[in-house]
Amino acid sequence: MESNNQQQQQHQELVESKPDPLSISQLNISSSSPLPQVNMAEELLKSHRHSLSPNDGLPSKETWGESLDVVDVDFTDPNYDTIEGNGHSDPTSFDADLCEYKKKATIIVEEYFSTNDVVSVANELKELGMAEYRYYFVKKLVSMAMDRHDKEKEMAAFLLSTLYADVIDPPEVYRGFNKLVTSADDLSVDIPDAVDVLAVFVARAIVDDILPPAFLKKQMNLLPDDSKGVEVLRKAEKSYLAAPLHAEVVEKRWGGADNWTAEDVKGRINELLKEYVMSGDKKEAFRCIKGLKVPFFHHEIVKRALIMAMERRKAQEKLLELLKEATEVGLINSTQVTKGFSRIIDLIEDLSLDIPEARSVLQCFISKAASEGWLCASSLKTLSTDSGEKLLENSKANVFKDKVKSIVREYFLSGDALEVVHCLETELGACSSQLRAIFVKYLITLAMDRKKREKEMACVLLSSLDFPAKDVRKAFSMLIESADDTALDNPVVVEDLAMFLARAVVDEVLAPRDLDELLSQPGSSVGEKVIQTAKTLLKARLSGERILRCWGGGGVETNSPGCTASEVKEKIQVLLEEYVSGGDLGEACRCVKELGMPFFHHEVVKKSVVRIIEEQEKKERVWKLLKVCFESGLVTIYQMTKGFKRVGESVEDLCLDVPDAWEKFKSCVERAKVEGFLDESFAFEEETQGVKEKSWSSSAAT
C-alpha cells in the first residue's frame, strides 16, 4: 500500500511542480519569521476557527466567495519570470525545494499522528518556511489520514482548523483541497472509500470555516463530469452539508474524542484545582498540569485559580501558594501569569455581581503576588476602585442579573415575549437605563451559547421591546469590551456578535451611526474586528434580507418562535391591504389576533396611520379597524400610543412623499384623542431643520 502511494506521489510531482491555473492568487503574507513557541501556540488556540481581521490583509470567512476567486495567470507574459510567483526563476531550484519540502512534510505528518502535538507541528512548519508550498502539507496530511483510522482523520481535521490563517494561509488551504479533489481518481485506486472519506474532509473544512462553500460549485465547473472529484463534491454537498444538523453530524463523524477542545481543557483544569484544594498535594497538581500539555493555555489555570480563591476564602492560601510554586519552578511562565491576572481584571465588573468584594480581594492578590516576586504588577492594567458610574449597586444588580437569566431562559423555552415585556415593566425602575443595558447584554450572551433558534428569538425580542437606542448601544459596548475574553470561551464570538450588531441595525434598533460611535470608543482588537465585520455585512448586496435570514427565522408562520420582525411587518402590510380592498372587518381582526404577537401591535397602528396619511380613499375604513381593535381590547392603549409615537418619528421621511404629512399627522392625533384611542396628555415634538417646537398642546379643543 505504501509503495503504491509513493508511485502515485511520483506520478503527481510533474503536474504539481507546474503552475496551477486553477489555484487562487497568492496573497503577500509574511510567514517567514517564526514566533516564540508560547506566544504562537497561545494565539493558535485563541484564534481557532475565528474570522480574520480586515486589517490582516486576509479575506474574511464571510466574504470567501468574493475575495478568493480563481485568477488566471498568463504564463506566456515575458514579465512573468517566476514559478508559482514564489521568486524561483530557476525551475531546477524550484523542483529541488519542492522535493525537499515534500520529504519534510511527510515526516512532520507521521510524527503528528504519533504524538498528537499540534504546537510541535506549528513550530516545525514555521521553521521550515517556504509558505508557498504549504498547500502540499494540506494535501499530504489529508491523503495520509484517509488511509488510516478515524482517530487520524479527526486529528488531521482538527490540525487544519487550528493552523488555519495563523500558520497556513487561506489560499494555501484552498489550493491544497483543490489538489486533493483533482487527484481523487488516483486516490480511489489505493483507497476504496476515497470518495466518501474525502467528501467528509471537504464538508468538515466548510463546517470549520476554512473552506468557502463556493468551493464546491467552482470546482465542479472545472472538473470533468465523470471524474471522482465531482463525485466527492456532490457527496459532500448532498449527503453531508444538506443533511439536518449537518454541522454536528460532520463534526462527530470521526468521534473527535481524542482531541481536546477548549471546553475539555477548562473542565480538566477545574477538576485538578478542586482535587488540589481537597488534598493539598502539589506534586499531583503539577503532574496534572504537565499532563494537560497546553503551556499556551496556562493563563486559564491562573484565572480559574484566582476565581476559586475569591469564592472559597479557606482555600485562598493554598491556591496562591500553588500558583507561586508553579511559577518558581517554571511550570507556568510569567507571561501566562500576567495574562491570567489581566483576564481577571477585565472580568472584575461581572465578577463583582456574584462576589461583591471581588475588586478589593483581587487587589490583595496582586499586592501579595508582586511582593513575593512571582507577578510583575507594573505590566497589569489599572484596577480602578470606583465603579459607581459603571454599574448599579452590586446587590441590586446581582438580584436583577439572576432575574434576567431566569426571564431569558423561560422565554427561550416558551417563546412568550409578552410575558417578558410584563416582567420587565415590573422590574424596571428609577435606574431603568442601566437595567435595560444589562438585560440586553445577558439576552445576547445567553443566546450566543445556544442554537440558531434562540439567537433568532433574541433578535425578535430585542426588536419588539423598543428600548432606547442609547441603552442598546451601551449593552453592545459592554459586550464589545469583553469580546477578547469571550473569544477564549466562544471561538466564533466575532461572527456571532457582529451578526447581532448588524441585525440590530437592520431591525432599526440601532442606527448605522451607532456603529461609528462604538468604533470610536477605546476597545479590544477583537471588539474592533466585531464592528468592522458588522459594517462589512451591512455593506454587502441584499444585506438586509441576508441578515434577516442569517439564523433561519420562523418561516411564514408567525406563531413559530423565532419569526423575524420583517416577516411580521410583511404580514401586517398584507392584512391591511386585504382589509382596505375587501372591507371584511371580522377577518382583519382575526388576522391581527393570529399574529400571536400582541407586544408588536404598535406596528399595526403605525402602518394604519401611515396609510391614512398617504391615502385619501377608504381612510374611514382604516379608522374603523383601529376603533374596533381598541374597543375590543385587541390593541391596548400602550400599543396604540407607541404606534402613534413611531409614526411621529418617521413623519420627516413621509414629508418627502406627502408634503403636508405633519398637518395630517396632527389631525390624526386629534381624532384619536376624540375617539379615545390616545390619552389627552399625548404630545409629540416636531423637528424641522434642527429646531424643535411643540406641534400641539396636550389639551386641544374637540
UniProtKB/TrEMBL annotation:
GO CC, alphabetical: cytosol
Start and end residues of each MI domain = 100-221, 264-385, 399-520, 567-688
Q: Which domain of life is it from?
A: Eukaryota
Q: Please state where this protein is localized.
A: Cytoplasm, Cytosol
Chain intervals with Low complexity compositional bias: 1-12, 21-36
Q: Does the keyword Repeat apply?
A: yes
A Gene Ontology annotation in the biological process aspect, one of them, is: response to absence of light
Family designation? Belongs to the PDCD4 family.
Q: What is this protein called?
A: MI domain-containing protein
**Organism, scientific name:** Brassica campestris (Field mustard)
Give the taxonomic lineage as stored in the record. Answer: Eukaryota, Viridiplantae, Streptophyta, Embryophyta, Tracheophyta
